[in-house]
Write a structure and sequence with these properties.
By secondary structure, the chain is mostly helical. Helix content is about 50%, strand content about 10%. The protein is built from 11 helices and 5 strands. The strands form 2 sheets. Strands 2-1-5 form a 3-stranded mixed beta sheet, with helices on both faces. A two-stranded antiparallel sheet has the order 3-4. β3 and β4 form a beta hairpin. α4 runs antiparallel to α6 and α5 crosses α9. It is elongated. It starts with a helix and ends in a 23-residue tail after the last helix.
Length: about 250
Amino acid sequence: MFALLAATTIALCAVGVNGACNIPPTLWCDNPQIAKKCGVEQQCEDYARAFEHQRVKITLLYEALCGGCQQFILNVLQPQIFHDLGDIVDIELIPYGNAKNESGTIVCQHGEKECDMNKYESCAIHYINGTNAAVPFIYCLEKAIHDGKELAEATKQCYRKEKISTAVQSKISTCHSGPLGDKLQQDAGLRTDAIGPIKHKFVPWVLVQGVSLNGVQSIQNDLPLFICQWYIGPKPAACPPDSITSGIDTRYW
């Protein structure tokens, strides 16, 4: 299956699709003969050249006390995406979810405790710099919270486990208790509200390459497999063998 976004882009850009093409758009670039039959051979080749070796961007909309979000982070995001596919993905975390901004005051789905945790995680993500660098810490934090620990205890445990420097700890603490934390949550709300073309309907909600689509939500648990298919270039060892030639034909690499 070719990337949903690539197929959408190619379908929109294709001029005069061949009338003999009876293949779903998501498969057009799987094989050069199909691409030629459907009149999108050049578009498939252009896409492959433009995105070869580029990380697949995965954005997660979530909230700190959402059970489904915790399960996704604990069972899919950290072990299967970050750990196994970290070299080919760019993970963006937005801890806001179904919260609402009511006249400047953020109201969270699971109450003030969740708002406080969302703000703390926004600060941690802000200060733990580097591609995907905050993921292990957020995973640790969400696991501790899932296991029943309060935020203060969870943060101490995860600071030690992830070896977060005292300087960064201090910055996160100041952010959490000050105006920067509020601003980061306001920004997270604006970012969440601005996604498209489909607005999020629940959390966890996943965007691919910054685009929100219904179809992606139905494959959340299989997301690692699709990332393997979407990435154009040599695959990590964790990718199944059949992903080496699926997603986009190797002729276009």
